[in-house]
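Q: Interleukin family protein, please. Structure only.
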Amino acid sequence: MLFSRVILSALVMFLLSAIAQCRRVDCNSDCCSFVEGFPVRLKELRSAYREIQRFYESNDDLEPLLDENVKQNINSPYGCHVMNQILHFYLETILPSVLQKKHLHAKTPIDSIGNIFLDLKRDLVKCKTYFSCRTPFEFSSLKDSYEKMKEKGVNKAMGELDILFKYIEQYLASKRTMH
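A: Structure for Interleukin family protein:
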């Protein structure tokens, strides 16, 4: 399963990279610039996560938290609200829990991820018209699943950051073709 995840991730990155190189977009708004410039931020997210990924994946033996339902909702007309709620969840619940537990890694990668998530959340809210946001999806099921996992929930949520990065990337890439 890990091998197929790596292959799929590499394929997605290759395709998005090829699309980005073939198409130059002249942006007329901050929101367009945010979407077009996000691949650089995504690279920063992945780089910070690589520093801590092994620790969290090795402590994750639970069912997926960021499941297919979350992916479908991110790719739906409610995507910007879904992204906003998930980013809020990570910023208010997951990342503070990680910092409190003082795991075996440096604080710096968590701070980097948190700062980029804060910027992303701010820009999503600022650009909700650009993203054509519609009524939000039901976020409580994700939060309920997390709470049922108890203390292992933090490891699960952190172990799935790479999945969240892919969902964010796919969502923002889908907006590149619309505007």
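A: Brief note, in case it's useful. The two ends are 35 Å apart (CA to CA).
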